[in-house]
């Protein structure tokens, strides 16, 4: 397998120290190459600078493989440097090029700080996901959060709750479900993935007594896709979808808004959840946490989510290769 590209993320955050902890834990069992400034890594880190990603396979045993990108200034934990923003963006662009060219098997992205990118480089995208979609020339991608017990997909993401009913459309929901179905087949070795769809309203509208979106929008989309052969159920009442027995009846849950999806997965596995972008022409995962400026540089950051993200990227690459 080719190595995974790990972008540094915001160098004033926990990304650099987590990269080292992940390398110390995974070593040659899961080779990855770090894209960033080696001077931003914790002091004393064994570094093996390389010029091509494939060289990571031969040097990973003696140091963290690094494709060096000079940020031009040191990093201070907890305090972003405005001039670093353009370099953070450049590492994401480099990783995308490496993935599209086939030089790496997947991208795993370190956490960024969107305000720091906007302030320092007029970053115009809401976040990583949208930027990667733009770089790849993809119109719509899907965010999935995954852990061993649960996979969830929010049909709408970072918008106010009051805006959700207007943002939900039949075409958008249909596309989300079809992308989820296709990517579960491609990357998770599920021949006919079972997808459970949550309702928008309490008790999935209770026959129209608590809202009609289930009747007018969600159910027709589900019925159309069932007719195409997809194993989709719902709309289900969200308050009964996530207990142990219910989770055994589906492979992924598609929810109508951000917290409906993220509260259950973060309750089940707060430290080990992984953010996966579905619908890109390459594999992208990320730890499900932010830059944690308050603990950056202290050595207290938990690498569990990053390690899980790297492992999931490797598993997805393997599943895709076997399927081909």
From TrEMBL:
<keyword id="KW-0521">NADP</keyword>
<feature type="binding site">
    <location>
        <position position="266"/>
    </location>
    <ligand>
        <name>substrate</name>
    </ligand>
</feature>
<dbReference type="GO" id="GO:0008270">
    <property type="term" value="F:zinc ion binding"/>
</dbReference>
<keyword id="KW-0479">Metal-binding</keyword>
<dbReference type="GO" id="GO:0042823">
    <property type="term" value="P:pyridoxal phosphate biosynthetic process"/>
</dbReference>
<keyword id="KW-0664">Pyridoxine biosynthesis</keyword>
<feature type="binding site">
    <location>
        <position position="203"/>
    </location>
    <ligand>
        <name>a divalent metal cation</name>
    </ligand>
</feature>
<feature type="binding site">
    <location>
        <position position="128"/>
    </location>
    <ligand>
        <name>substrate</name>
    </ligand>
</feature>
<comment type="pathway">
    <text>Cofactor biosynthesis; pyridoxine 5'-phosphate biosynthesis; pyridoxine 5'-phosphate from D-erythrose 4-phosphate: step 4/5.</text>
</comment>
<dbReference type="InterPro" id="IPR037510">
    <property type="entry name" value="PdxA"/>
</dbReference>
<dbReference type="GO" id="GO:0008615">
    <property type="term" value="P:pyridoxine biosynthetic process"/>
</dbReference>
<feature type="binding site">
    <location>
        <position position="275"/>
    </location>
    <ligand>
        <name>substrate</name>
    </ligand>
</feature>
<keyword id="KW-0520">NAD</keyword>
<dbReference type="InterPro" id="IPR005255">
    <property type="entry name" value="PdxA_fam"/>
</dbReference>
<dbReference type="GO" id="GO:0050897">
    <property type="term" value="F:cobalt ion binding"/>
</dbReference>
<dbReference type="GO" id="GO:0000287">
    <property type="term" value="F:magnesium ion binding"/>
</dbReference>
<dbReference type="GO" id="GO:0005737">
    <property type="term" value="C:cytoplasm"/>
</dbReference>
<comment type="similarity">
    <text>Belongs to the PdxA family.</text>
</comment>
<keyword id="KW-0460">Magnesium</keyword>
<feature type="binding site">
    <location>
        <position position="258"/>
    </location>
    <ligand>
        <name>a divalent metal cation</name>
    </ligand>
</feature>
<feature type="binding site">
    <location>
        <position position="129"/>
    </location>
    <ligand>
        <name>substrate</name>
    </ligand>
</feature>
<keyword id="KW-0862">Zinc</keyword>
<keyword id="KW-0963">Cytoplasm</keyword>
<feature type="binding site">
    <location>
        <position position="284"/>
    </location>
    <ligand>
        <name>substrate</name>
    </ligand>
</feature>
<dbReference type="Pfam" id="PF04166">
    <property type="entry name" value="PdxA"/>
</dbReference>
<feature type="binding site">
    <location>
        <position position="158"/>
    </location>
    <ligand>
        <name>a divalent metal cation</name>
    </ligand>
</feature>
<keyword id="KW-0170">Cobalt</keyword>
<dbReference type="GO" id="GO:0050570">
    <property type="term" value="F:4-hydroxythreonine-4-phosphate dehydrogenase activity"/>
</dbReference>
<protein>
    <recommendedName>
        <fullName>4-hydroxythreonine-4-phosphate dehydrogenase</fullName>
        <ecNumber>1.1.1.262</ecNumber>
    </recommendedName>
</protein>
<comment type="subunit">
    <text>Homodimer.</text>
</comment>
<comment type="function">
    <text>Catalyzes the NAD(P)-dependent oxidation of 4-(phosphooxy)-L-threonine (HTP) into 2-amino-3-oxo-4-(phosphooxy)butyric acid which spontaneously decarboxylates to form 3-amino-2-oxopropyl phosphate (AHAP).</text>
</comment>
<dbReference type="GO" id="GO:0051287">
    <property type="term" value="F:NAD binding"/>
</dbReference>
<keyword id="KW-0560">Oxidoreductase</keyword>
